[in-house]
Amino acid sequence: MIYKIDPNEDLIKVNVVTFFIKIIILFQIFTNIFVIYDIPYARQIFGFIYLTFIPGLVFLLVFKLWHGDYLETLLMSIGLDIALLLFIGLLVNELLPIFNFNYPLSTEPLLIVLNIFVIASCLLITKIDDKNILKFSIPSINIKPLVFIMVIPALSILGDLVVNNDGTNKLLLLMLALIALFMLVSIINKKFLSNNLYALAIFAITFALIFHTSLITNYLIGWDYHSEYQVFKLVDNKAFWDYTFTSSDVNIAKGYSMLSVTILPTIYSKIAAIDGTTIFRVFYSLLLSLVPLCLYKFYSERMKDKISLLAIFFLISNQTFFGIEGFSATQIVGEFFYALIFLIILKNNITPSKKLLIFIFFSTALVISYYSLSYILLFFLFIPYYIFSELSAFKTLRKYVTLEMLLLFFTITFTMYIYSNSSIQMLNLMTILEQISLNFGKDFFDIATRSATVLSGLGLSQASSPLHLVGRIFFYVAEFFILIGFAKILLFNKNDEDFQIDREYTILALSNLVILIMCIVIPNFARFFRAERFYQLSLLFLAPFFVYGGSIFFKFFLRRKNILLTMNFILIVLIPLFLFETGFFYEMTGDSSYSLPLSMYRMDKVSLYYRITNKKEINAAVWLSDNMNRSHSLVYGDLTSTLHVLTSYGMLNGENYRELTNTTKFASNINYVYLREVNTEENIITTQHGSWSLSDISPLMEGHSTIYSNGPNKIYFLVR
Q1: Positive or negative, the Cα torsion across 497, 204, 60, 283?
Q2: How far is it, in rounded angstroms, from Cα 400 to Cα 356?
Q3: Same-domain status, 646 and 681
Q4: Is residue 282 part of a domain?
């Protein structure tokens, strides 16, 4: 049934300045009340909304960056907001200590400065002779797809809650089945999903897929989050970010230099009173959910909306995208700015001055958020636009990326990385390049120097079962479609009327393909960023070629010329690929599965040990951190413990801990040994080179006394 508002009703007309000023002031008042009086739940909700939308909104209005595209304006507003929080936090952090205020990132100064910024911006906005009228009407809405769109993310959250309480995974399986059914019907039935619901559908599906992983445990998951959580707590506890900070632990030193995991979460912690674990599990996941919306907008300006929808679904169907375990928080923030930069700089309807202003904000925010993507963006700006643009066919590229933009970004990048935190980012880059160059000749023909992910992607490693082999075949078909589509554009320089790829996008896609080739050809190159991250990053701009290549393939075999018709056949590949990547088929058949949300209940403890942490392990790490003598002692634990729970919740780093192995020799007069459930109950100690039995260290444990135990987790103490 189609539900319609009276079609004869006039458009609703609202003065942009008046409308938003009222909303901003209202939120300003309520947020201040809730923060000052620390009202539970209200402070968290209003504080989060205020921090995520208000600063960016007032900035957007001051500089008249508002225009008729609501989705693009919303994304730009959130991007400007996150960038402003980074800049304001850094400014407060550096200026207040000059006036002997030693805790600049505490609640009071942050709230005062944000109030001043917002109020001053509102005063400026009221001086603007605003002729911008917001006109909108409530469009006809098909209730059926809207029900799907609302139910899918709800099932994701409810399903995680049930699994977290040792319940069934059936709600999550239903959620995945509904996503597949929803996409199938949306593509085949032209009347089911209207274009004005595409963006909402993309967000709902992306949200559901990301959160069905990030909420599967109440604590941190993956690897990078643990070191990032520690640097956040270092800043949050001191209410100060020290640009001179250094550490012998490279992961801690690199993370501390990135404001996206130090100053940004500290602002949310102080103003909205959101605990750190929730910030990492929820806030960063929400930010990642916005990346496909940026790309949908980018795609839809070059191809039909339905093609863009299918391309986005292919992107988010890949486990490398929705598997939050493989992400770092810095990467998530960086990707958001990265997608926004390309969305803005390749547009024609923004004046050069406004484009330069937005580029300065987003590129600077990227530099202080994620070092790896900054280098990649520099590569993409310089190589494509100042090498290819020398060719007559690509002269127009320079109107999008000017020399001023390139020089400005280059200066910001290397100034930040050279003069902050003992140049850790520059030293890290130099070390990587040196390692690659020194061993290039020796390792070039050694296939072992390519990561397992690269070998799997090339079909050079064995599948664990026949069903996993079928899953790989669908993955390889998807890769084949991308190559077909890209080859058609690059070699024949031909577009379909439904698929218009401009020269700028062609060069951008080619640059991403070059990055993937470098992962394969150059030994150890993928260690810089991890092969799966390179693949996921490249898919941001290569995903549409999957649709285009698939349409070419099915056109050839089916003798059909309509790309929209051939998209129905692309679903023959895409829907099974989605169900394989999410682990749906593996769980339904009982085959081995990597999916934590679906198959955690049947995974062995050793497999889970690398990926999740439980409450008792955290309690033991916190107790040790609170009671140990840090200046004269060392903590010994296996590789996973030291890099996971002892780093995050135990707040220890390479200066405080050592890896426990069968050749360990205690190096301090005061020593602690931290053992987790897998160590004590499964008798396994993990190392960089595999694992070994706990009984092998029995001679080392002589003279140790148990000083803490909460069941399977134990802490031993030895004075030499």
Answers
A1: negative
A2: 10
A3: yes
A4: no
N-to-C CA span, the chain: 78
Same domain flag for 630 and 573: no
CA distance 463 to 582: 17
Binning the chain into helix, strand and coil, the percentages to the nearest 5 are 70, 5, 25
Stated pTM of the model = 0.91
What's the mean pLDDT when you consider all of the chain?
A: 85
Run of H or E including 550: helix 531-558
For 49, the domain range is 2-136
> Based on the structure, what is the number of domains in the chain?
3
Concatenate the DSSP letters of all residues of 145-165 into one string.
Answer: HHHHHHHHHHHHHHHHHHHHT
User: Same structural domain for residues 634 and 583?
Assistant: no
| Identity of the residue numbered 210 | I
Measured CA to CA, the distance from residue 704 to residue 715 in angstroms comes to 10
Measured between alpha carbons, how far is 209 from 316 in angstroms, rounded to an integer? 8
From 136, 159, 183, the end of a domain falls on: 136
Comparing CA positions, the residue from 615, 600, 597, 616 lying closest to residue 161 is 597
| Alpha-carbon gap, residue 284 to 253, rounded angstroms | 21
In one-letter notation, the amino acid at residue 190 is K
Go through the chain and tell me how many residues it has: 720
Strands, sheet with 657-659, edge to edge from the N-terminal-most edge strand: 657-659, 633-637, 670-675, 714-719, 705-709
Say if 84 falls within a structural domain: yes
663 three-state secondary structure: coil
Secondary structure (3-state) at 245 = coil
Q: Are residues 557 and 664 in the same domain?
A: no
The continuous run of DSSP H or E covering 314 comes out as helix 305-317
For residue 498, the 8-state DSSP code is T
| CB-side neighbour CA atoms (13 Å) of 110 | 33
DSSP 8-state assignment for residue 648: H
Q: Which of 90-99, 213-222, 507-516 has the lowest mean pLDDT?
A: 507-516
Same domain for 545 and 657? no
Give the pLDDT of residue 611.
Answer: 86
Residue tagged 């926004």 (tokens): 340
- Burial class (CB within 10 angstroms; exposed 0-12, middle 13-18, buried 19+) of 200: middle
Distance of CA 46 to the CA centre of its chain: 24
Does a structural domain hold residue 365?
no
Domain end point (choices 84, 116, 136): 136
Q: What is the pLDDT of residue 608?
A: 86
Q: What is the pLDDT of residues 46-62, one digit of tens each?
A: 999 999 999 999 998 88
For residue 359, the surrounding DSSP H or E stretch is helix 352-367
Asked if residue 18 belongs to a domain, the reply is yes
Report DSSP state, residue 113: H
The residue-averaged pLDDT of 463-474 equals 90
> Which has the closest alpha carbon to 101: 236, 239, 232?
239
Residues 568 and 646 in one domain: no
Q: Per-residue pLDDT tens for 208-247?
A: 999 999 999 999 988 889 999 999 999 999 999 998 888 8
Alpha helices for 301-399 (secondary structure H): 305-317, 319-322, 329-345, 352-367, 371-386
The pLDDT score that the predictor gives to residue 2 is 38
Secondary structure of 434-483 in the HEC alphabet? HHHHHCHHHHCCCHHHCCHHHHHHCCCCCCCCHHHHHHHHHHHHHHHHHH
Closest alpha carbon to 480 in 391, 553, 431, 579:
553
Cβ–Cβ < 8 Å for 227, 50: no
Helix (H) or strand (E) holding 298: helix 284-300
Per-residue tokens: 10: 């006039």
The sign of the CA dihedral 486, 491, 497, 500 is positive
- SS3 assignment for 519-537: HHHCCCHHHHCCHHHHHHH
Residues 97 and 22 both lie in one domain: yes
Residue 635: its H or E element: strand 633-637
